Fold this sequence. Notes:
Blueprint: H1 2-27, H2 35-41, E1 44-48, E2 51-58, E3 65-69, H3 83-88, E4 92-96, H4 113-126, E5 133-138, H5 140-151, E6 156-162, H6 182-195, H7 197-204, H8 211-220, H9 225-235, H10 242-249, E7 254-260, H11 270-277, E8 282-286, H12 293-296, H13 298-311
Parallel strand pairs: 3-4, 3-5, 5-6, 6-7, 7-8
Antiparallel strand pairs: 1-2, 2-4
Helix pairs in contact: 4-5, 5-10, 6-9
Amino acid sequence: MRRLITYVIRALLVVLVLAAVAFAVARGGLKEVDQATRDEWGGNYLETDHGILSYTREGPVAAPAVILVHGFSTPKFVWEQVIPAVVAAGYQVISFDHLGRGFSDRPEGPYDSALYNSELAGLIKGLNLNTPLTLVGYSMGGANVVDYAASHPEQVKQLVLIAPAGYMRNAPEMSPLAMPVVGEWLATVFGRRYARQGIESEINAGRAPANMLEKFDQQAAFAGYTDALLSTLRYFPMADLSDRYRIVGGTDIDVWAIWGTSDTVVPFDGASLMMEDVPQMKLTELKGANHNMTYGQADDVATALVHALKEG
């Protein structure tokens, strides 16, 4: 029995050492987002209450403004294939990196509703955008813009929700990611690998530009990215925001949803629940499209988005 206990203890120690090494390797070499790196990248930056946002602004400044809000893990470059069609349709188009992603700052958090509402408010105020305006949200970004509109309905005339989170009611309530230490280890060691899978699959299928992986890896090499993902999972209730959708459903905000019928990340069956809570919502189904459609089926998304903007 003593030998068995000794063997188990030694095995556990080996596992702990290997886990510590994996964590150190994943953290090692991570860079900090600072002014020097921003000078190297170029682009547009805006100071907000929680940190600096990286953003793009295209189209005539006097044109109606459309803000594109990306999802949980993949930064604003998911919109690059969609933006030209929206600009060509006569709109001013603004996209930005969520805090913790892309080339924006990585504040410590928590990454909760207040933080995501604050970054949108800071963007609107900092760019002197005329309200009410149009917010377009993809995946978690859909939940973000609905949450914002529920608190600021007077600032929003239209919502376009692309595969929006908020009705993922079959998502597990508990996860190892919720556990202290264990969650940090899992996010640090596996977070980047998980987040790049969707991009990799679309590139391998020939549906997305090959340089998307390079762009993803560039921003993921900065400290705070996986921390932001983990904090979002812990503090932003994207699985069930039905109460916020119902508030929007009681306003006169024009609401469209664009959803792929083959989406398994944010399942398409959430659309029927959403339409009960947001009776003014109009739905565009993209047959066979999956959750990566903003960059995997970008032409279809751009066509559907421009149609929603014109009809809204």
